Amino acid sequence: MAIVVNLDVMLAKRKMSSGELAARVGITQANLSILKTGKAKAVRFSTLESICEALQCQPGDILEYQKE
Amino acid sequence: MYTSVTSAKVTRVITVLFCVLLSVLMVFGPKLLQLYFGYLADALTKKVLLAFYLCCPAAWAALISILRLMTNIIRGEIFTPQTVFSMRLLSWCCAYVSLVCLIFGFFWAPLLVFALGAAFMTLMLRVLKSVMARASELRAENDLTI
């Protein structure tokens, strides 16, 4: 996929667990896993906003474009 | 209260009744046709019987497809690839029956009416299948939107 989700990197930088992030953002761990594994088809702005708020980062820190 | 699940259950019961009817016709078909075509040539009876038995596999496939479709609807699994597959199978069954009836319609004209009916059903099922396929895609997309 051209868009890579770098959530794992950000979680490691912030020393935060997936469960904690899911709880803070208000999504299930299953959905967070879909996002982390790149299986998601779309991300809502509200979810992205919550993730950025929880991880204290910018959308660009989480999402990255890579040529296929 | 008459819900969509109740409706699907009623349809399932009717489909089972059709399965029984088809089984009965498969067993007693030749006798019934002999009674009906008694005054006509034996060759015609054989041709109509052949057309009927050629249509039987498609009829069974269609009935089983409908049963699976109704079971999926009762379970709440409506916009899924399985539903689309069942509808595609149904449309192909109708197309096959239409073709068989068209060919044998040259020997017994009333079969041409069946051919036309089955062809129209094929067309309608193709449209419904396309709608279902798109709905299934949209649902999958929605499910993977976080």
Description:
- The complex is a heterodimer of chains A (68) and B (146).
- With 68 residues, chain A is mostly helical.
- Chain A is 57% helix and 9% strand.
- Chain A contains five helices and two strands.
- Chain A is globular and about 30 Å long.
- The termini of chain A are close together.
- The model of chain A has no long low-confidence stretch (mean pLDDT 88).
- Chain A binds chain B through residues 27, 31-32, 34-35, 39-44, 47, and chain B through 140-141, 144-146.
Mean pLDDT of chain B equals 88
The description of the largest β-sheet of chain A is: 2 strands, antiparallel
The CATH architecture of chain A comes to: Orthogonal Bundle
Q: Could you estimate the helical fraction of the residues of chain B in percent?
A: over 70%
Number of domains of chain B: 1
Structural class of chain A: mainly alpha
Flag low-confidence runs of chain A. Answer: none
Number of extended strands of chain A: 2
**Order of neighbouring strands in the sheet with most strands of chain A:** 1-2
Could you name the key traits of this structure?
heterodimer, A: 68 residues, mainly alpha, 434 Repressor (Amino-terminal Domain), two-stranded antiparallel ribbon, 5 helices, 57% helix, globular, B: 146 residues, 0% strand
